[in-house]
Amino acid sequence: MTKEDILVRMDQLGFTRQTLAEASGYAYEYVRDRLTPTASNPPKKFVAAVQRAFSEEERRREVDLSKPSASIWDLVFFNGAEVQKINLGRKAGGYEDIPSFYHDAIINFADELLRKEKEAGKTVKFPAKANLHAAAGSPIAAEVMDWEGENDTVMVKINGLSMVPLLNDGDVVPMRLKKTARNPYMKKGLIYLVDYDGGYTVKRYNTRKATPEEKEELGEWIERGKVKVLESLNPDFPEIVIKQPIEWIAWLD
Fold this sequence. Notes:
- The protein has helices at 3-13, 17-24, 28-34, 44-60, 72-75, 103-120, 212-218, and strands at 142-146, 153-158, 172-177, 191-196, 199-209, 226-231, 240-241, 247-251.
- The protein is α+β, with helices and mostly antiparallel strands.
- It folds into 3 domains: 3-60, 434 Repressor (Amino-terminal Domain); 72-120, no CATH class; 142-251, Umud Fragment, subunit A (Ribbon).
- Strand 4 (191-196) and strand 5 form a beta hairpin.
- The longest helix is centred in the middle third of the chain and has 18 residues, at 103-120.
């Protein structure tokens, strides 16, 4: 796939450079520079990440939005959109982040939920927080099911395939809360539930030698020539380079 092919596909899918950066896991500046008129064709690793992002977007658009039984999470399963509430005013938190062609489907689904809620006399409940940005760069992934587990644990539902074979899509696993740890600092090789970039993700923490480009780009995020990363166990998914403050919530004991 050439630079021109990428630009054509971006136009077809309605991707901006910012959207592609988020979906592929690369920094916006890197994507911008790779797609300038004078830039040479991008490297294979970048092209592979872009192709995965495009394929994932195409797969999402195949979701049948006409069925009221469709999961609300399917309807907002990208762009980091986060449904915080659906009330009688039919307002969804993060609504402005969701592409317009999904709006009617979300409203219809919300109406169906509210109708069932009224009939059952119950309150519709959603997870405390879920990061639904499941593009190739951060196929994320953690939906918090229960904060009230025994022995200071939290039950976490895994969404996606980034942590296969250890954690599969749909697995519900207990994770130890940070307050029970002897040391508040993250340790290499351990798997953490992390609050990152506006949502939760489950990834393995590690460090590696920074590339020359990363040394120039990341600056203060480089320590002793190394970058901190959140790794997927599935080699088909790229790592997330940490370049903003993160807070870990729990770890897999």
